[in-house]
Amino acid sequence: MINTESKFGLNYLEGSILKDGISKIYKDYHDKVEAIVKEWLASGIDQVYFVGCGGSRAIMEPVKLILDKYSSIPADAYTGWEFVNRAPERLNERAAVVLASHSGTTEEVLKSLDLAKERGAKTISFSLNDTPLQKGAENSLVYNTPAVNLAKLFMSYLVTTQLVIQSGNKAFGEELWQALSALPEKLQEIINVTEERGKALAKQYKDKKGYYLVATGMLAGLAYQFKVCTLLEMQWIHASHINAGEFRHGPFEIVEEGQPMIFLLGTDESRPVAERALNFANRYKADTIVFDLKELPEIHPYLAPFGVHIALQWFAWHLAQERDHPLPTRRYMWKVEY
């Protein structure tokens, strides 16, 4: 096991760090979120907006999909400046805006909050405690765990699942709510069985210069997150992500023998779309790395972003060590003016 005090920083997959953090969020907020959503619906909402940047933007993709499929309330997800500049016409007192920022100080997320409040929308934030975002939102959920993206993802699931229960497919919503209550233990199981493969992959791929990530459905947001936050930001490795549904519409021309390609496979309805892209890449001898939910301890298909995240994170953690490039390393972020 890696020393959490090393130059590589804190590994939130060690011990029970992740399980404890997610368990605390569920304990602290499952009743509160239920009450918030009940209040929203009683006052009348007909639109939900999710707003965040980077990893905080990525975690909003799967919950938008869930709302699209299982709730009658329309949902949209935006990066901060896009939300501010578009200023959607439907943003009014009958809208709810969900805003996420780990630091709670992200410029465009705070401007998004201001816009939402100007229009009379309901607001809820996910961030660290005692931040401008937390203080400015009508409601706020805070966390104290190094697993920041999984914390925000879990919070977004709490809100979304209550919206489904109270305004959509109640049976599915209650099924997902029950799965969320059991998730901390499930995550611990997945942590325990995925490290060795992550370590082996890191040794094998430590010298690769770039990757294409391919996913769709519940895992499309995770592919974006791993590209943006892990490979580009934390490892300075060239990367691009492709929705598997778009793979044949141009991107498959990049497939060639030996090209590293990471495929994320879930167990929801979109799986055949991702498998078709994977089969094509294998046919033309790309160097494919597959992270498949089916190969992990059983988890609800719509919780795929949590399970596959862990397998990817072990790969990232050990890749950082093999390359002697700690995940916290930055050359621009927080260091120079932008």
TrEMBL record:
Q: From which source organism is this entry? A: Scopulibacillus cellulosilyticus
Q: What is this protein called?
A: SIS domain-containing protein
What positions does the domain SIS occupy? 37-169
| Record-linked Pfam families | SIS
What CDD domains does its record include?
Answer: SIS_GlmS_GlmD_2
Domain of life assignment: Bacteria
Which Gene3D superfamilies has this protein been placed in?
Answer: Glucose-6-phosphate isomerase like protein, domain 1
